[in-house]
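Lay summary. Proteins are chains of building blocks that fold into shapes, and those shapes determine what they do. In this project we predict the shape from the chain. Here is one chain we studied, written as its sequence of building blocks.
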Amino acid sequence: MPDPPVRLVRAGPLESGLTQGIYHALAREMKESSQDTIILCSPKTPYLCIGYHQVLDAVLDRKICDNKELPILRRRVGGGATYLDHNQVFYQCIFHHSRVPARADKVYQMMLEAPVQVLNQLGLDGRLRAVNEVEANSMRIAGIGGGRVGDAMVVVGNLLLDFDYQMMSQVWRASDPGFRELAATAMEDRVSTLRKLGYQHSIETLEAMLADAYKASIGRPVIDSRIESRRIGFGDQNCTGSFSGNFSFTSPTRGRNHPDEVPQNRRRRLHPPTFH
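And here is the predicted shape, written in a compact code that computers can read:
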């Protein structure tokens, strides 16, 4: 029996927390009978996001983040700390584990073929390297994270229309200013953006190109859809406890103050949007 169609949601600009909360909600709810989903979106306002196993104070300077009023969210999949804003389009793939390849490299190939196709359509040399690095003209142009969340296999990433290198370098935890400068220079030399490569496409255009590329590459029927309001509510609940100002982050392996254990009276509410 063939696998059911994949649901594609072009969500557009969202409250920052919802860009993380909705796909986490879908992953936690995932059952074999659930619909596999691809979400395309971008954040309305900037924030920082760290990987599930990262220790916040080892990678980011919390005082600087607070001074710049940058929220910090922890996702439940891997990858490193990154600065996210409206100049990036996100792709978030949430599939039941039984409907993806068993090998991690094959999962990434399946989920990341679409952004690579988009880069090639733009006339760049788009490639997938080192299992899960999306590159354009041998420069990294996306941040990728992935992992198992309950019964769901999740792969998330972005395409960089532009990137605030200065802001990212300022919020890093650095032993001294010289090291921060060296790291910032290395980042600019290694990470590119579409604007640096001479492309001036809008986020809306990139989202539309990604939608078409996923329909062509995922190997199953894809239907345009929307997410029900109750799932938006679940996404809202998922993101409310994930801001760094509400509690102290620690490594999940230490067992204290896990993002899922924030007291209800210390959570921040976000207002969920309506999908059209």
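What the prediction tells us: Residues 6-266 form a domain with the BirA Bifunctional Protein; domain 2 fold (CATH 3.30.930.10).
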